[in-house]
Amino acid sequence: MNTEHFLGAQVPLDFKDPKPWVLSRHIYNLVRRVEGDPDKKAQYVRKQSGIATCRLRMSFAELQSMRLRELQCKLVKSMVDMSVDPRTPVAWEADLKEYIQAVRDFDFIVQCSQRANDPFEVSAERVTDDEIMQRAAWIRNAWQTPEEYQNLAPTSPLRTGFWSSSWHSERRPIGGTRRENTQRSWYTAFAHRLLFSAYGGAFLLVPMWIMVLHNTRDTCLITTTASVVVFGFVLAWEMEKAPEVLAATLAYAAVLVVFVGLAIEEGASEGASRFSVR
What we know:
Blueprint: H1 3-8, H2 19-30, E1 31-34, H3 40-48, E2 56-59, H4 60-84, H5 93-112, E3 121-123, H6 127-139, H7 146-150, E4 153-155, H8 178-213, H9 217-238, H10 242-277
Parallel strand pairs: 1-4
Antiparallel strand pairs: 1-2, 2-3
Helix pairs in contact: 2-4, 4-5, 8-9, 8-10, 9-10
């Protein structure tokens, strides 16, 4: 179908069948162009498999968004009909129930986006996904010219590890293998714990070194205030529950306040001893 002609016709919103109008609002988000080039190994595998050079990305989450929009149209129409004429028979219960379930499904799709292998993303970075999309595009003669391909909205590569490439050179099942997912989850959790331990050590050791090397009241107070503010910000970024953030921040502040009291007391005693010597 000619997309420009379809959109240029200004598809009217027909509440009996809102699908064409909903499609006209989402059509540019259905298929995107992946930016970036695969590595040499990934290019060789795709060349051996006869996969074309256009790199596509499709998201089933967009289909769920279209489903939500269609149900929204139906419910809005029902509410307007009931408001204008309460005697109008409107079957809105089934649409509302379906809309609630669609929202729950969308929340699940959003949760899956945090996985390393999102099953709701179909991307050219995965070999088998690429084969399926290229075959479907070839059957419909879609995006075969450079102009058509460049007109697709660009998108960034999939989220991946720091050292690993997002372009796969081997075929994997949807969502990845169980062993691969288990190992990745363990290493991710270990890295997160290691990072938090580094945070904890730094937030205690850095203020201690500063207040020991520069043992003045102003230095201790400024260092403590700045450390507590930064510590609270980091916890608010990483943690979800406000009471836990507050409790951890207060505990950290209490430790620093005790250290500040000892440092000020030590400084005062040193000053008194110097005065008595004189």
